[in-house]
Amino acid sequence: MSSTAESHEPLKALPLAALHRAAGAKWAPFAGYDMPIQYADGLTVEHVWTRERAGLFDVSHMGPTFVVIASPPPDADEAHALIAAEMEKLVASDIAGLKPGQIRYSALLNETGGIVDDVMIGRPADPAMRGSLYVVLNAGRKDVDLTLMQTHLSGRVALRPAGASLLALQGPRAAHVLERFVPGCGALSFMQFAQFDVTTGGRALVSRSGYTGEDGFEILIGDGDEKLAIALTEHEDVKWIGLGARDSLRLEAGLCLYGHDLDEDTSPVEAALSWTLGKARKTRGDFPGAKRIVSEASTGAKRKRVGIRPLDRAPAREGVEIVADGRVIGTVTSGGYSPLLKAPISMGYVETPFARAGTRVELMIRGKAHGAEIAPLPFIPHRYKRSAP
Amino acid sequence: MTMRYTKDHEWVRVTGDTAEIGVTQFATEQLGDVIFVELPAIGAAAKKGEAFAVVESNKAASDVYAPVSGEVVAINDALGDAPELVNEGPESKGWFAKIKLANTGELDGLMDEAAYSEFTQSLERNQ
User: Fold this and answer.
1) What ipTM goes with this model?
2) Is some CB atom of chain A closer than 8 A to the CB atom of B8?
3) Which residues of chain B carry a pLDDT beneath 70?
4) Do A314 and B36 count as a contact with CB atoms less than 8 A apart?
5) Would the pLDDT of A179 be above 80?
6) pLDDT, average across residues A258-267
7) Average pLDDT over all residues of chain A
8) Burial bucket for residue A326 (CB in 10 Å: 0-12, 13-18, 19+)
9) CA distance linking residue A47 with residue A45, whole number of Å
10) What is the pLDDT, as a whole number, of residue A90?
């Protein structure tokens, strides 16, 4: 296997690197970090474990950040209105309407309506944190995102990297396990977050969210991160999971990976992320790239992100051309293998007339045409624990 | 019956002028679970050192290089429905193809079992 260093700078280490070494991690560079790609049992075991029990991921390379209004007014709603107005300069989502303790998936936009990064943005419930937003960025886009925010947000906004470990515990046993160490977390619904005391020491900011399609939690913890991670992995239902399985899990769940399924030329409408656009915001058009995005939202974009199921066993990886009607009509942007479906799966973009589920296309793999079908996403149903309507 | 190995982790089992070929146990440990194998067609010409098959794991596709030159006279059809045979028996039931040797002299440049074992151990020490 070839290893190409992206730069001459040394790789950044995860704070919990020693734990991963002890667990037999195999390492590779990712977004400037030395990351565990898998552990001793390998990708398939780790993937299936997460769908059946609880997988623990160290995602401290991502950029959990607090975006804060300096000297917030005493009223929490007023303070939120101020910071929301700032963040809305960069996203088309409804941030002003976030309830305390609510977190949502959104996209930082550029002037042409393309996606700079896909992010999570949450409004803390704690009155002591009024006027701030909890924002999680992709590791590979952290620097770009922080620069974007520094450039466009007023001087009254400070950006505070959380400087803590970020762990994700995902799977049907995640709530059962985490409740033992973070009592009360089980009361969170999908896309809610709050602060909790941790029985092994310290406090954590926990959101019921994740990148696998399973029920699960993302845990921001500074002091006490090692003790919590050790306690979790000592639980019989928990295994460390590496980046390799993280990728196959998110692909089964139909979730995007920035730099592959999303980039600065791709709009949220093309990416099938129209649901992240605020309804009133679309009417007001008060966000970067509004002209393009609003137009695409009403009359449709030229291309669309879709699922693709190859009809034989050959996987279709990123870059594979999609052919129909004797010409190239799209490209695969993510591809691999689903251990649950025991079949190859891909995501990609096709010209919108070919985007309907069931459409037959061909995938050009190593110069040969392989039949495939456009498929709905996700490939595996999501199992989020949403609050009762 | 002679076993020979390449630096790219292919094995060759020679019987008379036929060479059975596959990837080694060491290779499958590096690859992880094999999910797809692309084999050459029967009758295809294999050329020593050139890619003649592809083995795919969850993560990536890897070229398999022909350790010897000759005509492909058999391929392991079972791998079509059961690529996991490569992990289960990399040097037995997970065989890829059989080649009719064009030049038995090419075998001289390949490692024997002891040399290959030493080679993989040195790789493991450096990992």
Assistant:
1) 0.89
2) no
3) 127
4) yes
5) yes
6) 98
7) 96
8) exposed
9) 6
10) 98
The minimum CA-CA distance between B60 and chain A, rounded to whole Å, is: 8
Closest to A346 (Cα-Cα) out of A374, A379, A309: A309
pLDDT band at A255 (very low <50, low <70, confident <90, very high): very high
Mutate which: A248, A337, A346, vs B, most B CBs within 10 A: A337
DSSP 8-state assignment for residue A274: G
What strands, in cross-sheet order, belong to the sheet with B51-57? B34-38, B51-57, B61-65
Secondary structure of residue B3 in the 3-state scheme: strand
pLDDT (mean) for A23-29:
95
Q: How far apart are the first and last CA of chain A?
A: 50
Mean pLDDT of A26-33: 94
Residue (of A183, A181, A227, A190) closest to A209 by Cα position: A190
A313–B80 C-beta distance less than 8 A:
yes
Tell me if residue B35 falls in helix, strand or coil: strand
8 Å CB contact of B36 and A244 = no
Q: Tell me what pLDDT residue A389 has.
A: 62
- Return the closest-CA partner of residue B83 out of A343, A249, A146: A343
CA A170 to chain B, closest CA, distance in angstroms equals 20
CA distances from A45 to A244, A335, A381 (A): 11, 19, 20
Residue A5 pLDDT class (50, 70, 90 cuts): very low
Q: Which tokens hold the place of A82?
A: 């101020």
> Would the pLDDT of A2 be above 60?
no
How confident is the model over A42-64, as a mean pLDDT? 96
Interchain pair B32, A314: CB under 8 A: no
* pLDDT score for A1: 30
Give B60's contacts in chain A (Cβ within 8 Å).
1, 317
- φ, ψ of residue A346 to 5 degrees: the values are -145, 160
Give the bridge partners for A106, in sequence order: A119
Cα within 13 Å of Cα(A321), Cβ side: 11
What pLDDT is recorded for position B59?
83
For residue A239, what are the CA distances in angstroms to A44, A168, A216? 13, 12, 14
Burial of A366 (0-12, 13-18, 19+ CB in 10 A): exposed
What is the reported pLDDT for A65? 97
Q: Do A44 and B32 touch (CB under 8 A)?
A: yes
Ramachandran angles phi, psi of A81, nearest 5°: -60, -35
B58–chain A Cβ distance below 8 A for any pair: yes
Instruction: Determine phi and psi for A304, rounding to 5 degrees.
Output: -145, 145
Nearest CA-CA partner of B90 in B41, B39, B47, B29: B29
**Residues 69-98 (B) with a CB less than 8 A from some CB of A:** 80, 83
Alpha-carbon distance A211 to A309, whole Å? 21
CB B90 within 8 A of CB B13: no
The two structure tokens encoding residue A83: 């910071």
